[in-house]
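Standup notes, protein team

Yesterday: finished cleaning the Labilibaculum antarcticum set.
Today: Signal transduction histidine kinase internal region domain-containing protein structure.
Blockers: none.

Input for Signal transduction histidine kinase internal region domain-containing protein:
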Amino acid sequence: MNLKDRLYHIFSIRWVQHLSFWSVFLLLELGRFTDMDPERIPREILFEGIQNSFIAILVYFNLRFLIPRYWNTGRYGKYVLIFIICEVFTISTLSLLFYHFPDLEFKRFIRFNTTKIIMMNTFKTNIFVLSSTLFHFVKEWIKLKDENLKFTEKAQEQLEAELNVLKGQVNPHFLFNTLNNIYSMSLYDSVKTPDMILRLSQLISYMIYECKDEEVQLEKEIQFIKNYIELESIRVEDVATIQLNIEGENPGHKIPPLLFIPLIENAFKHGISSELETSEIKILMKISQHNIDLEISNPLESKSGVINTKEHDGLGIENVRKRLNLLFPNKHIFEIFETKNQYTTHLSLSI
């Protein structure tokens, strides 16, 4: 622990703060005793001690009772009224003390003028009360700021942990489905298998080396999507038509990695089936200065005449929803549209 941290730790102790506060004022008052007759000093110190005791009572009554009970609860009118009453009582008591100490050294400077006595005690009392109150509110502000900082840091850590879990779900889920597709392909068309494995290795390379960052360039994510579509195209080229359109210029947007791929993967998983006469997957991405819009549509598979859309909304869709809520709160629109034979997802991001 360095010197700065040690001092911060020491002065964060409550009794040290109070001792420091009163020591400063007492040292300032002791300065006037330097040129005083030594025989008069004990009586002068007694007078100052009694005076400061009454002021201390007002200070701590204000800090410990009035501020917590009235100011902090929003009852400002009552706080001001009670504080004024207490201050008037304290100043009156301090002024009366002068008449019980007729031989004070500095009485000759004010010539026992009642108005001057009251003004002097008012000034002295307010110096103590206002400075202690200011110190209290500054300390509370620093405390609140530290608590907010700790809360923000903790919330950020929780957010990052949850995002890492969600991002971690995408990788094995994606790899499992892709490897399963390659395995199925190898059973009846081993010629295409090497090409699929090669393309898969390119996808894995991106996932390992690029996706470790919180954000990636949009153009890299688009290239990853194109590589994935090319991989899937090898598998479904005889049974499906795939359309990918990218509109608009990329102004250098950055997005969280693998945000779009679960939606596209979902379309391939559920939009291509032997039960469907035709399978056409359409992917449209529109890019503007402040927005990214992605729309994906695929045919719906029906079993025994019943369209099962619950199977469509699996882990991938739920993962996307959670990541969007964490990463783009109030800055995204995620919608799913279902017709008799088509399933469409629409995602709009405000960048």
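Follow-up from PR in the comments: The longest strand covers residues 279-287.
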